[in-house]
Amino acid sequence: QVQLVESGGGLVQPVGSLSLSCAASGSIFSTNHMAWYRQAPGKERELVAVITRSGSTNCADSVKGRFTLSRDNAKKTATLQMNSLKTEETAVYYCNAALWRLGSGGYVDYWGQGTKVTVSS
To answer: pLDDT above 90 covers what percent of the chain?
Structure first.
């Protein structure tokens, strides 16, 4: 079974740091883009950062300079390092990735179940 599993969420104080990990597991031939989204209560889901297979990144203006997205193609993981966190960034964070399941004909988008991040003093 192919799936994405997030980890690293939890409670953190304002201006603190937290690292989120997304791991693709199962019989996977290849991974393409990997991204992190977040959804705060009562708000729409928004893109936080995305990284291509070659390592090119793009991030939301609101997190530029504070968040860093990296990946390890061999391990099939993506890591979102979040620094100087703000209370308004409390949300459920979701991993999204295009995965080519072994034996299939191409890439399909997958979503993780999400991990909660609470920024509070």
So the answer is: 99
